[in-house]
Every structure is written in C-alpha cells, then in structure tokens.
Amino acid sequence: MSVQDNTRSNIPYLMARGTMSVLGGLVGFFVAVVLLRRDVLIGPNNLLYLTVLGTLVGYLFSEPVARRWARMWARLSQEFGNVQPQVVLAAGTGATVALLITVLLNNVLAAVPGFTWFWSLLIALVLVVSSSWFFVVNRNLFTLVGTRQDAAPMVDQVLKRPRVVDTSAIIDGRIVDVIESQFVDGTMLVPRMVLGELQNIADSDDPLRRKRGRRGLEVLDRLVANQGISTEVINDDGGDAGEVDERLVQICLSRRADLVTTDYNLSRVAALQGIKVLNVNQLANALKAMYLPGEKLSLSIVRVGREADQGLAYLEDGTMVVVEDAAELVGRTIETVVTSNLQTNMGRMIFARPDPASSQQN
C-alpha cells in the first residue's frame, strides 16, 4: 500500500514532465516544418532530429515546473479532501435542480422573439449559482440518520490521524514515554529514509554521533514493541522535494498526517503549510511548573552567570534559574525568592534573588 501511495503522489510530477516533453517535441516539429518550407533545412531527417531535440529540451527544462505542479497538486488535494461530503452533495443537488429548471424555461421561452443561446446560458449560470448557494447554506437538510450514526466513527478517524516521526524525535526518545503514558494514540509512521538516516548516524566515526544513532535505534525498538500504538515503516520518500525536512513535509501533506519532531525550524516550516505539529520540546515546556513572583525556592548554585554577580541554578525539570547576587555562592544551596519569569521559544527561564530573611538568619 505504501508503494502505491508513493506512486500516486508522483503521478502529477510525471504527468507534468511528460506534457512538457510532448510540447517541446511539437515545437521542434513545427519549427522543422517551417525551416524545410523555407529551404533553410534540406532532407526529411532534420524533421525527426528537431522533433527529438525539442522533446529532450522540454524534458530537461520541465524539472522545476513539474516540481511546483506536484506541490500545488498536493495542496489542492488536501484542501478538496477536507471538504465535507454534505457540501459536495448539496452543491451537486443545487446544480441539478437549476439545470432542470433551465431546460423547462428554455422550452417556454423558445418562442419569445430575441431569445438566443446567450440568454439561455445566462439564465443557466444565474440559476446554478443561486441554487447551489442555497443548498450549500442549508446543507443540514442532507444530514441523514445514517450520517448521524456514523458521526462518532468519523470523529475518531479524525482524532486518530497518522503521525510521521522524524529522526530528531526518535533520537530524543521522550515520545515513547508520552505514548506509554497514553497521551498519544493512532498510527506512528516511520519513513524508510529516517531509518537510513539513523543507520548512517549509528555508523558514524564520531563516537557521540554513533552513540546518538544507536540510542535512536533502541528507541525505535521500544516504539515498535509498544502494544498500545501501531508503528508502520513506510516507503514514501517525499518525491523529489530535495532535503529530508522538505520530503517529510511532502509525506505529511500527501498522507494528511501530523508531524512529530523536536526540530524547531522544521516545526515552523510544517506549521506554515497547514500541518499539525507535535513538538515534544513544546510539550515539555508546557508541563513545567509555573512559579509566581514571591515564591521561595531552595536552589544549589552550580556556576557563574553571564552578567556580573549572577549565579545559575537548575530545577529538577531542567529549568534554568538566574539568581542575582549569587556569583560568590557557587557550590552552596541557598533559599531564594522568585522575582520574574521569562518564556522564550527555547523554554522558560526564572529570575530570583537570595531570600533576605534566610540571609539574616544565617
């Protein structure tokens, strides 16, 4: 099934390249005919040569056009795929009713002097637009009992959309913990190119990269072994989109799937193209505890901060705390008072200062 879906996603690309090649061949053919008639070229073989040349030129220059057409086709397919069945049924019913009324009016108005095909087309256009608009606005009339009974399965199908997992999310590993906590269900799709990327990282000469790659393979084994979710390896390669991130976006568009990643830039690019992104880093930041100004924390100062007299400490969830007037307290555990919070795209940062009451007691 994955191979068939991949072939279908390449059909617009192949059709565009074929059309450009045929057009190039026709241009070469007509140019050869004109040149032969004007005696610029001699011999019928030149007709064949120029036709083949035009076909090759059309094929060579069709690459960017075919790629753009394939992307546009994927977007159009996604947009039309999101149209509700009631809307399509209502629009078709409205157009059918309008055409039937047009046929009846044509029989009545045929005997009227001055009634031509122009007025017939104008009446048909007005009736089709108005009737289709009326039926689409009142499409609730087409909500049948069977449709209501199937409403719950349709909602479940929408909620359980497949999710494409990229390399960064697999190496990170926290997505498995989220799945085991039963906060994510559905089907996890792992493109084969992601497996290839993990294998290349695991075979790297750099010890750190090799360790990360092997960790990703271990996380993938845990994901496949998890009985609470279905994991499927797909052969989609995203066509000729280029970079791995672009190909992942194309896979999500063609399969109408969500994207699971920890890559911030990929998250932004995918979200701009209408893809729902599950960023594990954003989830972790959202689950971090919120500390209000005035709350007290017991912190261990681990190192000196960037600014003068600043010390740095970390909470158990990894949140960094900047403590004022604590540069000389590195290695000590002190009581602090929260002064403010700063939320950034990379996470939350807390600012604090030593607790005056605790300092006086000491």
Description:
- The chain is an alpha/beta fold.
- The protein has 15 helices and eleven strands.
- The chain has a six-stranded mixed β-sheet. The protein has a five-stranded parallel β-sheet with strand order 3-2-1-4-5.
- A hairpin with a 6-residue loop joins strand 7 and strand 8.
- The longest helix is centred in the first third of the chain and has 36 residues.
- It is extended, with a radius of gyration of 32 Å.
- The N terminus is likely disordered.
Radius of gyration: 32 Å
Distance between the termini: 71 Å
Our estimate of the beta-strand percent is 15-25%
Q: Main beta sheet, described?
A: 6 strands, mixed
Q: What is the count of β-strands? A: 11
Give the topology string: H per helix, E per strand.
HHHHHHHEHHEHHEHEHEHEEEEEEH
**Helix percentage:** 55-70%
Mean pLDDT across all residues, rounded?
Answer: 80
Shape: extended
Structural class of the secondary structure composition? Answer: alpha/beta
- By DSSP (H or I, 4+ residues per run), the number of helices equals 15
Low-confidence stretches: 1-9, 144-158
In the sheet with the most strands, the strands line up as 6-10-11-9-8-7
Oligomer: single chain
